[in-house]
Task: structure prediction
Amino acid sequence: MKIGLITTLDTNIGDDFIREGICRVLAHVFSGRKLEFVPVNKHQPFTVFPPSHPARLAQGLRMPVVGRAAGAAAYLLARTGKSRFDGCDLIVQCGAPVLWPGCAKCEWAGPIWYSVVGRLHKKIPVLNLAAGSCYPWEDRPERIDNAEDAHFLKTISSYCAATTARDTLAKKLFASVGVDAEFLPCTALLAGGTGRVPGEYRGYILVNYMPGGGHYDWGQKIDPSSWDRTISALVSNLKKKHKVAMLCHNEAEMRAAASLAPDLPLIFPRTPEEYFSLVAGAKAAVCNRLHASVGMAGIGIPSVAIGTDTRLLMVEAIGVPALYVKDATLERIEEKLNALLAGREAESTRLLALRERVWNQYVGLVKKSLKPAKL
Result:
């Protein structure tokens, strides 16, 4: 059985968590079958076609005279011949933000959604799982007012047997364009599996630090130096009572962490399996990477999440403390972290029970959505 995956590859281990959770659910639903996953990096959308496909060849032309014509030809040719998703038995959009300002202009809308999924969805079931929102925290919309974004979201949803929203804003915005998306936490919660043996960093408090507190400022006039001072003071205070290690998701975070806390261990896992093995048994965490909080919650590690946009709502959806970076004072972070540590056992039990409920919900949703297809 072949399953096409619309995902992100080799960019952010958080995207790997989302995809890993989905693949675990699918492996369970289709247990007893040999599964072949066909992942396509949406940020290189023409890789949905084999190298010899005319759309791929046209898209590769970059000469000044033919560049624009080649781009137009690529989209037209994308509807001809076979893609890597032809012959799949199922196509799944794997989480990540789907709703954001100008989402209709995403680079994968034409090559993947309109040209391939739009052609195939009547004969191959499609699922859009763990779709999220990504808007400035201080400027959250009540509805989708942009006509192009509304058309894009309605169209891709019409291709799908089921769409799930991982945060309350995503659900509300889908509803504003007539799409009934089921609210379910992010599948990153399921990425760690069960029965993990506590790893090297048992008993540590993990700190994941990003300059500025997140990926983007969003024009909110966030003061990066203020966040640097806050996280530096937090680490200094934590070291007095706990073992502390810096958890990094990429090379840039490694350099930032080494500069902020040169005396602390640095953890830089390269795969989900390595990640969950290394962090297993940590007391708690403070995270700028929001999928770090969600992934660790799935193996019972509580955390405080700090960010800059509505992806924080994905963390709130699983009951994990989430703070907008401007509100994340040293006192507030320590208050929430100390409360987690005081009730560590109860919170871990809650998170593990939540993971099991969410697992059962996803398994049930996939079975229900695909029942007419008799997969």
Notes: The domain at 2-49+84-191+355-373 is CATH 3.40.50.360 (Rossmann fold). The chain has two domains: 2-49+84-191+355-373, 204-342.
